[in-house]
């Protein structure tokens, strides 16, 4: 079977895994709920020019992800998997691109595709109704197009494809969709000066960037005009400086000392988010030692020196850029993970050669030994701790099964490390990772659904009783989690009884959702429909919500 077919099969397997896991839970709070609701409102209204949330302009990101989610709703209906469909498909295509890129430098394309598809960070964003997987796809497509031109020589299709990818990335996330691919490619051209002819590539990058920016303007100018200038005022003039220079929503540290304290944040994100494949980075030293002659042109680009420059260019600018931005979130490192997967696949492939095998096996054994001790302690804690803490009683059976599986996992890896080849170890490890994901999701998602999603559970329970035109309000509580599951009606928020009483006095069918206990009396004509209890995932406190209706 050809390498490309294997890569595609691996990508299809990752897609099936993501679809399966994504269908096992409702939307999580805040970001997923906001994106999903905005897409649902777009699908209902037919306004494809700009998104809204709670029927008011949502100018935080451009429109691409809402188009894709709305298409999913048209295909699959109003459910979580519909608005997550674009992310799952984007991540599957990312696996193909990573495999093809890895195949350019080593015969480990399927291995790299499997690595990126089973990386925890990629599994999270690949199954979430957010912009991250889509942005990663378009960013990586622009980078992959450049790498193809770098290795095979410029072709007529390179500039338009790269420009389209940059344009779609910018339509997905705004300036960062332009900055990440352009900075990464420009860094490669700077690092390669004097060793490869960079002038033509710099000109093509400029042309592609212009095409991408024009694609963005083709939507941005009409959308801004339709919102009387509010879209760009909110997204560019207000929100972008806040994201750059302030720790929005507590994501980062404000001031010099907190900023410096957060400098290790992204290295930690890369180390933890890439687990367990972070362990295989111990194989990297020495795998570039068999250097080819340094020639000019594509032959030099394929050499270890050229490969290292590509890896540096595709990773360091993103790390530096996101580190300088005050607001910090783990998914800001998403563009780095594909290149880490390619690096690990390359290192495993080279380390499997006879003159590397023994040394690499020893390094890997030490890496697993050092991590096996804390993982064993975690496994034992999962098995024992819930048994002695009544508050964790609901997690006792899942925790014991997951802890037991971790111990089995360690045992299997210990046996493999003694006798198996490195690629066999890695493929088996990926299989264990898939089983881990399926077991964890199957056991934990049902518990978490009832525990941390009282708003969504309440919305799903009361929606069938709503009549057309029902006015909805909340009292003493404001979270986006239930918008999507109520069918995206306009919701009025009230913090006190004064405005709420005026709303309740207006005739017509109404639905009231309020946080209990509440000092405000229930207005005449309202009857209790449903109540739900759980934990507020934002504040961590206990939450009781009650729904009242009036015909």
Which H/E pattern describes the elements?
Answer: HHEEHHHHHHHHHHHHHHHHHHEEHEEE
Helix content: 55-70%
Average predicted confidence as pLDDT: 86
C-alpha termini separation? 64 Å
- Count the beta strands: 7
Shape: globular
Largest sheet features? 5 strands, mixed
Proportion of residues in β-strands: 5-15%
Strand order of the largest sheet: 4-3-5-7-6
Structural class, from helix and strand content?
A: alpha/beta
* Sequence stretches where pLDDT stays below 50 over 5 or more residues: 290-297
Provide the gyration radius in Å.
Answer: 26 Å
SS summary, helix count: 21
Would you write up a description of this structure?
The chain is α/β, with parallel strands linked by helices. Helices cover 64% and strands 7% of the residues. It contains 21 helices and 7 strands. It has helices at residues 3-22, 31-45, 64-76, 80-105, 109-117, 120-126, 132-152, 158-173, 175-191, 199-226, 230-245, 256-261, 265-273, 298-302, 304-324, 337-351, 354-388, 396-419, 422-452, 454-462, 497-505, and strands at residues 52-53, 56-57, 471-475, 491-494, 510-516, 527-535, 542-550. The strands form 2 sheets. The protein has a 5-stranded mixed beta sheet, sandwiched between helices. It has a two-stranded antiparallel ribbon with strand order 1-2. The chain starts with a helix and ends with a strand. Mean pLDDT is 86; it is low at 290-297.
List the helices and strands and how they pair.
Elements: H1 3-22, H2 31-45, E1 52-53, E2 56-57, H3 64-76, H4 80-105, H5 109-117, H6 120-126, H7 132-152, H8 158-173, H9 175-191, H10 199-226, H11 230-245, H12 256-261, H13 265-273, H14 298-302, H15 304-324, H16 337-351, H17 354-388, H18 396-419, H19 422-452, H20 454-462, E3 471-475, E4 491-494, H21 497-505, E5 510-516, E6 527-535, E7 542-550
Parallel strand pairs: 3-4, 3-5
Antiparallel strand pairs: 1-2, 5-7, 6-7
